[in-house]
Design a protein that fits this description.
By secondary structure, the chain is mainly beta. The chain has 1 helix and 8 strands, in the order ββββαββββ. The strands form 2 sheets. Strands 1, 4, 5, 6, 7 and 8 form a 6-stranded antiparallel sheet that branches. A two-stranded antiparallel ribbon has the order 2-3. The radius of gyration is 18 Å and the shape is elongated. About 10% of the residues are buried. The model has no long low-confidence stretch (mean pLDDT about 95).
């Protein structure tokens, strides 16, 4: 299984996790709506910021993204919050814009959303 390339670090800045349970709701004339689970597994997502110390690291990430996982492939990453190994992919195959951290433009970062099934 593929993993993020060397030189790509995940920052805690911007880290957010969400869970989307597959629930069907049926409104009732009186009282609260009925709910039932549609799937036993849920889709989990987490927003993260990837940090690149130099332009070579950023280029290495793009090569890995396009050639290794081919934009939509699954890869392994450690959840920075708890250290658990997750098999994830980028949501809709998208990676955010590359933006410089400061005026020197040597180091940069990219905001991404990763999803996995739990």
């Amino acid at each position: 299984m593929s993993a993020l390339p060397a030189g790509t670090l995940m920052q805690m800045e911007g880290l957010a996790e969400s869970i989307s349970a597959s629930v069907e709701r049926t409104p009732m004339e009186r009282g609260v709506a009925k709910q039932r689970l549609l799937n036993t597994q849920v889709l989990c997502k987490f927003n993260a910021t990837l940090y690149f110390a130099n332009s070579d690291a950023a280029d290495s990430f793009i090569d890995w993204y396009l050639d290794d996982i081919r934009c939509i492939g699954w890869f392994e990453v450690r959840n920075p919050r708890n250290g658990k190994l997750l098999t994830v992919r980028f949501e809709e195959g998208k990676v955010g814009d590359l933006s410089p951290v400061d005026d020197s433009a040597y180091d940069s970062r990219r905001a991404v959303v990763m999803e996995y099934i739990r």
